[in-house]
Specification:
- Helix content is 32%, strand content 35%.
- Strand 6 and strand 7 form a beta hairpin.
- It has a 7-stranded mixed β-sheet.
- It has a domain of 107 residues: Gcn5-related N-acetyltransferase (GNAT) (Aminopeptidase, 3-Layer(aba) Sandwich).
- The protein is globular and about 40 Å long.
- By secondary structure, it is of the alpha+beta class.
- The chain contains 5 helices and 7 strands; from the N terminus they run βαααβββαβαββ.
Length: 155
């Protein structure tokens, strides 16, 4: 098996990242109900709306043998919008590797704080990276209530 490499994601990768996100939400370990997961990701994200959502963010992706295994994004101001690991790669240390790459870019940009809205599954991983819960909240998506936490880390 080839080594897992980290690289900057580009527009040509966006559809693969949408599929990875869908896989993580629907096939990975979850603390959400099937109805909540369906509301969160009713279909694989792709196309111009998805490209618009990812453009302007610094996207770091992990791949092995041309298959996307994970990605994390950071935007100006230090906000981490996306952090997904394919179920087959969870528990491998890939979250930590992606986080370190994002952290290096944040530090290079002079950011003084990182923040994210973490799902119930992502909260332990962000806590392990030194984030603290700022507040808990519930968001409504397609009639479903999803719990998450706003988390911050001072650099």
């Amino acid at each position: 098996m080839a080594e897992i490499i980290l690289r900057t994601g580009c527009a040509a990768d966006y559809d693969a990242l949408g599929e990875l996100m869908f896989d993580a939400i629907h096939n990975g370990p979850t603390k959400y109900t099937a109805a909540q997961s369906e509301a969160w990701a009713p279909k694989v994200r792709s196309g111009s709306d998805w490209a618009d959502r990812l453009s302007g963010k610094d996207v770091i992706m992990a791949e092995q043998d041309g298959v996307a295994l994970g990605f994390m994004s950071i935007e100006p101001g230090g906000y981490i919008d996306f952090a997904y690991i394919r179920p087959s790669a969870q528990g491998s240390g890939l979250f930590r590797r992606l986080y370190r790459a994002v952290l290096a870019r944040a530090e290079a940009a002079g950011e003084t704080q990182l923040s994210t809205h973490a799902s119930l599954m992502a909260q332990p991983a962000f806590t392990a990276m030194g984030f603290d819960v700022d507040f808990h909240e519930t968001v409504q998506i397609e009639g479903q209530q999803l719990a998450r936490a706003h988390m911050i880390k001072t650099l």
